[in-house]
Every structure is written in C-alpha cells, then in structure tokens.
Design a protein that fits this description.
InterPro entries: HATPase_C_sf (IPR036890), HATPase_dom (IPR003594), Sensor_HK_TwoCompSys (IPR050482), Sig_transdc_His_kin_sub3_dim/P (IPR011712). It holds the Pfam family HisKA_3. The chain crosses the membrane at residues 16-35, 89-116, 136-158. Keywords: ATP-binding, Kinase, Membrane, Nucleotide-binding, Phosphoprotein, Transferase, Transmembrane, Transmembrane helix, Two-component regulatory system. With 395 residues, the protein is α+β, with helices and mostly antiparallel strands. The chain folds into 3 domains: 6-174, no CATH class; 180-267; 271-392, Histidine kinase-like ATPase, C-terminal domain (Heat Shock Protein 90). 67% of the residues lie in helices and 10% in strands. The protein contains 11 helices and 7 strands. It has helices at residues 6-29, 31-34, 37-55, 70-74, 78-115, 136-173, 177-234, 239-267, 270-287, 304-325, 360-369; strands at residues 126-127, 131-132, 292-296, 330-337, 340-347, 374-378, 385-392. α1 (6-29) packs across α5, α1 (6-29) crosses α6 (136-173) and α3 crosses α6. It is elongated, with a radius of gyration of 33 Å.
Amino acid sequence: MTSGRPWVQAWRGGTYLLGSLVTGIATLLALPLLCHPRLARRWANWHRDRAGRLLETPLAPRPVLHVMGRRAWADPATPRDLLWLPVNAITGVALGLLALLCVGNLLTAAVATPLWWAFAPENRPRLFIDVPVTNWATAFTLGALQILLLTALAYLAFAPIARAHARICLVVLSHSAAEQLADRVAVLTRTRADVLDAHGAELRRIERDLHDGTQARLVAIAMRLAVARRALSDNPRNEQFLEELLRDAHEGTEEAMTELRDVIRSVYPPILADRGLTGALTAVTARCGVPTRLDIDNLDTVPAAVEAAVYFAVAEALTNVAKHSQATTAGVRVSRKADRLSVVITDNGAGGADDRLGTGLAGIRRRVLAFDGTVDVDSPAGGPTTIIMELPCGS
C-alpha cells in the first residue's frame, strides 16, 4: 500500500484491519483444526498473499503442502505456519478491535448527531463513550467533534497500522536463509533445464532449416552445374539447354542465400548489429499493427545476448497484442538501473493473457529466465495488460 491517494490507503487499511479481526477470531475458534500442517499452510499462504497485496510487494508463491504424516510435520515451513496461528490471533484481534472501535464510534456519532431525538430517553446515544446526547447543542458540538477526531484518526492511523500487521505477517512467514538458498537453487536448476531444452530445440530447428532448405538447394545447384558441365563437354553447341541449367542454378543460389539469411536472422537479427537495440525496437514498434509508443532511456552498453532476448521478447509480445488483445494502443518502455534492464510492455486490450496456456508468453518467460531474469504478467479479464521483464545486463 505504497501508492494511491491517502483516503484510498486509509480505506484499504481499514478494511484490511477489520478483515484481520475476523480472521483472528476465526483462528481462535478453529485453532485445533488449523493446527493440522496442511490446513495451517493454506491459512498461512492466504494471509501471506493478502499481506503482499496490501504492501504491493510481489511475492513468490509458496508450495501447497501435499505430504502427510511425519513428512508434513518435518517440512521446514511448518513451524512458521503454526507460529502464525497465535500471532494472527493476537495481532489480528487487537489491531482489528482498534479499527472496529474507531469505525463503530464514528458511525455512532454520525447517527446520533441528526437523529438523537428519535431514541427513547433511556436509550439515547452516548458520545465520547459516556456523554448522553439530550439536546441539539450537545449533538452538534460533541457529535461533530467526535466525527472529526475519529475521521482524522482513521485517516492517519489505519494505513500504517495495517502495513505494520502485514509486515509482521511476512516476517513470520518469510523463508529462512537456507530455504531461500534452496528455492534459488531449485529455480536455477529448473531454468537451466528449460534453457537446455530450448537450446536443443533451437539447434534442431536450425539444423532442420539448413538441411531441408539451404542444403537441399545447394545440392540441386551442384547437380545442375554437373549436368551443365557434362552437356558442355558432350555438345558445346546446345546453348539453350546450357542457358536453362545455368539460369536454374543462378535462381537456386539466390533462394539458398535468402533462406540462409533468414536462418541467420533468427539467431541474431542483423538489425541489432546495424542499428542497436534502440533502432531495432523502433522498427518492431513501427511494424506493429497497433499504434505503439516507444520510450527508451539511456541504456549504455548492453550485452549482445541480452539485446537479442529483449528484441525477440518485445517482438513476440507485440505480435500477441496485435493478434489477440483487441487493443487500440500499446506501449513499450525500456530503462536501465545499475546492472538491471527493465522492459515494460502495456496495452489497453481485453486482458486475460496467461502464459500457463502455452501462449507466446511462455516462450518470453523461458527466454528471459535463461538470463536469470524475471517476468511479471498482470492481465486481468477486461484489461489492461502489463508485462514487466527485468534482465541482468552487467558486464
């Protein structure tokens, strides 16, 4: 909850605290049931995601606990999941009650100020805890003062208190250093396997393109030239036949060169070598079927492999925008901070993009992860869509 208007932050903080009160009470009531490791993991994951959304902090998903018995109790994260139960019960109820008292007394003052007279004398509302409202002077002075003070309190306190509770949640449920290292090794192992698979597939594609295309045409050219040579030695006056063979060989040579250039372009686009990343992205955005704005900061020197990855990723993303998004505008912003290159691609289309469906986004993610980068896709139904890629670009 680091952005947005203060009133929006106060509203989000208040709803978060009231929700924490409900979950704290639920934790107390269902404590014996929630002590089961698998249920504790689900409960903890839900609170962790909730805290991350409030703090607007992207969090890597925690795996659901599928094992049972001793293996579930031996899981390194189980003690933290169980620790969160009493912590949530205490902090959620305590901080949530503060928010409830503030909101409740604010509503009481809002009702008592104009409607105090509608209550029976023995049931007249009370302001500032124990001051009965018996006349208009009390209603307008104390009622207005209570509304003003409690509104100021909610405005100033709800957001920081909610953030404090969310941070407590993340601290309790954070991975230990050993688990972070293990997770990192697992991610690198998975991305390395993906890279090797992608590299093998790319090599097979290049070999297939060369074998089925360029090599086949070169063999045909060699055969025509051999026939032309034999025909020249057997009958040097058959000019028409020789001309046809040489023309076919010449055309085949040009076609082979075209196919060879296409293969080379798929490995490293020549436009990157000629015009750099800025010029290459300018050409890509200009060719996009959707009007696309391109913003590029000073990038300094970017490794060639990273340039190629960014070029292909942006090209694939804009192709998806033009084909599937129904967008009318798109944007690409490339910036660099220290040794991290950031690429943000946006469109105002229908949204719903999901790389788990095997779309081009999956290829983009594999390409970026190969460089130990990150990809974040935000594409709710109805749009808009935002793709954020970060790649290391240090020397």
